[in-house]
Amino acid sequence: PFKRGTVGAARSGNPNSANSQFFICLEDASHLNGNYTVWGQVTEGMQLVDRIKKGAGANGQVFNPDKIIKMQLASDAR
């Protein structure tokens, strides 16, 4: 389920368009369940995610956006 800290695959209206973009939920978002793919969860540093510049334009567009300089992805997949 999409909840605070969930990392999901961003896409256009086409369900098969998700590729390299992602989003992090800042709050629970159950309306996304079944429509987008969850592929991760922020496990530490959510207070830093909360400080990232938020979009206000169309589609959440941000002008002069902040950048994630370092991010690590850990998997328990075998």
Task: Describe the SSE topology.
Elements: E1 6-9, E2 22-24, E3 38-41, H1 46-49
Antiparallel strand pairs: 1-2, 1-3
Task: Please tell me about this protein's structure.
With 78 residues, this protein is mainly β. Helices cover 5% and strands 14% of the residues. The chain is built from 1 helix and 3 strands. The chain has one helix spanning 46-49, and strands at 6-9, 22-24, 38-41. A 3-stranded antiparallel beta sheet has the order 2-1-3, with no helix packed on it. The two termini are 22 Å apart.
**Widest sheet: strand ordering:** 2-1-3
Q: Outline, from the CA principal axes?
A: globular
Largest sheet: 3 strands, antiparallel
Mean pLDDT: 86
* Sheet/helix structural class: mainly beta
Total number of strands: 3
Binned, the helix content reads under 10%
Order of helical and strand elements? EEEH
- Poorly predicted runs: none
Characteristic terms for this protein:
1 helix; 14% strand; globular
Short summary of the structure?
The protein has 78 residues and is mostly beta strands.
